[in-house]
Amino acid sequence: MKKKTFYIESLGCKVNQYESDGIAAQLEAQGFSRAGQGRTADICIVNTCAVTARAGMQSRQETRKLIREHPDATVIVTGCHAQTDPEQFKKISGVNLIVCHQDKNLIPAYLARKAPEKDLFEFRKPEYGKKACFVGFDQPVYGTMTRAYLKIQDGCNQFCTYCIIPYARGASVSMPFEQVMAHISGLNGQGFKEIILTGIHTGLYGLDLKPETSLTQLVKTLDDKKTVDQIRISSIEPNEITDDLINMARPGHILCDHFHIPLQAGDDGVLSRMKRPYSVEQFSEVIHKIHEILPHAGIGLDLIMGFPGETDKAFENTYKLVAALPVSYLHVFPYSPRKGTPAWHFTPKVPSNTAKKRAALMRELGEQKRSDFIKSNQGRILKGLIQNQGDRQTGMLKAVTTNYLTVFIKNEKDTHGNPDSLKGQIVNLKYDQCSNGNCLVGRIVS
């Protein structure tokens, strides 16, 4: 009997990618197989994103595209956009099932029993308070990347005025501590050298558990036990970066010297309207503390341009702040109004073209920051993980350093002349050559 085939499209964040990989692994364990390139699938799953209006639009476009390309497939949509706006997907002819966030991990078991029909799952709103619980996978999720993701936390209690995600995923909940340790041990046993701890609000990890714990305590335990070679935190709020966490990114410790930190705005008035829990001064102090202890750490910022009420002066404050901070790269987005959030009603609105111009200026600053960071690391010995996927055009190996630089490595082989055996390994490297828009070319050093 021919195996049923499936295809999963994952949009948005690392948490979505982790969840899609987990669903795929469970489907394969149930006897399904992935649809090959250019082949139609029996089942198509779209794991949607709602973080911006554009992400929602892309989720709907991808759903329609899969319905066209796989006309006989059972089409299932899930994820944040499907959770916050299921009516949009009910309008799309060919969607068979809309699965709420809390049930997405049940999709494989359900498909193994029988083909789904409309409305068989009870679509529910996210849970808050004591009813909220962590939804994950029993077994470690390996995925297809060199570095493994592990979702240790889900949901958010912050309710920033611009953000739809708490309405999609509910309250902050954590994977039980012992389960985290077991998953990391399992990933290490499969040969993963680096694990990326991820979540919707990762810094809240452990505060809902009994007994209560914290992200810092989790990393400290991993550091003490050396369960895996490297840990990276996908994103963390500035007010959740402890001194202990920074110190565990020093040489000889387990945490990568890389912090991705949402700033969003560098003006106290805008931060207040966004309901961000820190001031410009507090944010600046955290960045300078990281830089003082770890002068070559990679520090990335998220920024939103054109939030309602952002005046020219407020933008200037943000620009000046970022220009003065020792950061290494920026992720910049024009503000995207999300219906259902408080900011949807905020005035005065910033014209779209103004927001785009400010974003463009900030991205130019980001390129300069990246260039300066690259120059500051040139000639230094860095620790990097060789990726399984090299550069297709040149055939060079590709490494990601602990401080989040990508370095291409030319003509390197192991002692037996085999370049492939270096993939997935942590090496010391240097780069001396920087060309083609900050493309780094280096070499392995002893």
Automatic annotation (TrEMBL):
Domain Radical SAM core: residue ranges: 142-372
Domain MTTase N-terminal residue range list: 4-116
PROSITE patterns in alphabetical order: MTTASE_N (PS51449), MTTASE_RADICAL (PS01278), RADICAL_SAM (PS51918)
UniProt keyword list: 4Fe-4S, Cytoplasm, Iron, Iron-sulfur, Metal-binding, S-adenosyl-L-methionine, Transferase
Pfam families: Radical_SAM, UPF0004
GO MF: 4 iron, 4 sulfur cluster binding; metal ion binding; tRNA (N(6)-L-threonylcarbamoyladenosine(37)-C(2))-methylthiotransferase activity
InterPro entries per record: Elp3/MiaA/NifB-like_rSAM (IPR006638), Methylthiotransferase (IPR005839), Methylthiotransferase_CS (IPR020612), Methylthiotransferase_N (IPR013848), Methylthiotransferase_N_sf (IPR038135), MiaB-like_bact (IPR006467), rSAM (IPR007197), rSAM_horseshoe (IPR023404)
Listed CDD domains: Radical_SAM
Domain of life: Bacteria
KW Transferase (keyword) present: yes
Needed co-factor(s): [4Fe-4S] cluster
Entry-linked NCBIfam families: MiaB-like-C, MiaB/RimO family radical SAM methylthiotransferase
Entry protein name: MiaB-like tRNA modifying enzyme
Gene source species: Desulfobacter postgatei 2ac9
